[in-house]
Protein 1
Amino acid sequence: MKPPVYVTRRIPQAALEILRRECQVRIWDSDDPVPRATLLEEVAGCEGLFCLLTERVDTELLEHAPRLRVVANMAVGYDNVDVPACTARGVVVTNTPGVLTETTADLAFALILATARRLVEATRFLAAGQWKTWGPMLLTGRDVYGSTLGLVGFGRIGQAVARRARGFDMRILYHDPQRWEDAEKALGAARVALDDLLRQSDVVSIHAPLTPDTHHLIGERELRLMKPTAILVNTARGPLVDEAALYRALREGWIWAAGLDVFEREPIGPDHPLLSLPNVVALPHIASASIATRTRMATLAAENLVAVLRGEVPPTPVNPEVLPGPGHRP
Ligand code: DGY
């Protein structure tokens, strides 16, 4: 009999086909998130869970799913999953690294340009019928070309942003717990302490994972270290930045502007304070949202899930230590 799996959202057909070939699939066939109570009911008999960053996979869920063997998260970030709790129960967790790197870096760069050159503000200005004449200092912004970029996190996505920055002749600084010597050489990047990065950068772009250690990594103290002309871009996770402090920083001119794809509590509504500020470009968590990349993320998550249920090593496990050794058959 095919193993039962639950899919928590409508996903691309290609991924569903991979799952259906080998599994008995139940799906929350909607573009809205599955209600928690439904999720807890549905996982009861499941061996596999295909989920998104909107689902909390915690001890409560694991207790409802005694047969669960794999949690395939359709995201590179997995702060929504209690990995130690899964590991303790022998549940394999997988994510989708690699396939979204370039698409996410494209969007981070788009936010850098949009905030520096005030693109959204300029469009609103036009739409409001305020354009009367060409003006010498009308909607003037900041040059990206030749400025200093500080990357907080220098993994795959941070490095992909650095590659783009080289085309803009930017000086590249990074802060990361790990030293990336080859990438430093290839990209002409320098590893510095976070405070130095914040003091020196014209653009600070965040590409770090959300963990208990990185929660509010950028708070009031850090924002006050930044230049009043600097831009903050966050395409990683909202809680890396203290949003209340960021609001004051933008309002009171401690920094120049922010480009945000992620927020502390998502989704945000139209009354969110940051949306009232002209120097904010805000997006609804779409950094990896190209058709090709979202499809690839979904198929990779499906490949991960079926591999584990077959007793094979999945392409991108998060906790490989729970994988069975050679010779194992499910
Ligand atoms: C991720 O993959 O972690 C993103 O936030 C969604 O692409």
Protein 2
Amino acid sequence: MNLDNLEKVLEKEPKYRLKQAKDAVFKNFISDWSEATFFAKDLRDKLNKECPLKIEADVLVSKKPFGSAQGGGSVKARIKLRDGLMIETVLMRHIDNRNTVCVSSQVGCPLGCLFCATGKMGFKKNLTSDEIIEQVIFFNRYLKKITLSEAEGLFQRVTNVTYMGMGEPFLNYENVLKSIRILNDKEYFNIGARSISVSTAGIIEGIKKLSQEGLQINLAISLHAPNDKLRKELMPIDKKYPLEAVLKAVDDYINKTKRKVMFEYVLIKGVNDSDEQAMELAKIMNKKLYFVNLILYNATGIFKASDTKRVEGFKRVLGKEKINFSQRYRFGDDIQAACGQFATNTKSPQ
Ligand code: SAH
Ligand code: SF4
């Protein structure tokens, strides 16, 4: 897809034509200009040539039943960018018609967290805001195809976006924020700020900047360890941004925005899942607008997931200490689309 020439192609047309074209792409999610029947055939052909809409991707659908407690209904797309690099993005369909897309913000990631598949790829590049948006457009088209009801012309859309795919969003701050504003734009995607979440490994400058944007989006911090000694081992970025400094930035963010902040904690067998570590975690998470999201570890090679008994034990300690917490569903682990399993090989889509 490439809309760089859109304004140029339509420059001799009346003004409202550009709006019509944008509506077709960003509201009605056409995948070929031939669908834009309000344009003359010549113009449609020209648009197809100069502003192609095709998004090259291959798609993998989870075999788990849609709506099941195991988090079925997830779909992974591997999108080929114009420069040939590949990114992964996932759609999670919920039974209440919510559709969440987990977008990538970088190709690879420079932060190299030990437990993360993306981290192992190294860093390739920052995505442009168009490349971020393209992932949401792709799944809007997909949803349109599978849910369009002929009678009413209605179809399901992407309702929630999480920046939890490949990459560290706050190392690509400007493009990420630009994409958020576009997704939030009432004229187009109209995705509410409260339905958009950004997850960071703890880039303090990003947390500070976000607090000044006046946006009601959700912030999540990848914590994964209750102290610097362990966190440094799992997440090298902790050396630059230690826990105390990250939590201080979060407190400032909360003071300013009055928003809740989520702390993600992946439970890794024998590494960060003991009762003592739960207690240590409870001590630093004991604040009103903090809440902890426990994540089951998804296999990427080195570590193992905590077993169910240990997860229950860990939760018991947090419960006793009156910590707000929840446990995340495992979405799409059968299609390598769960958190931290995003990594692309160099194979092109068919
Ligand atoms: N770079 C950002 C956002 C992308 S990662 C960040 O780290 O926050 C999205 C979430 O998945 C993060 O909380 C990340 O720590 C977590 N994650 C990474 N690897 C994982 C794995 N193997 N299993 C489960 N969660 C993982
Ligand atoms: Fe990067 Fe996040 Fe993976 Fe760490 S967990 S390597 S910050 S994508």
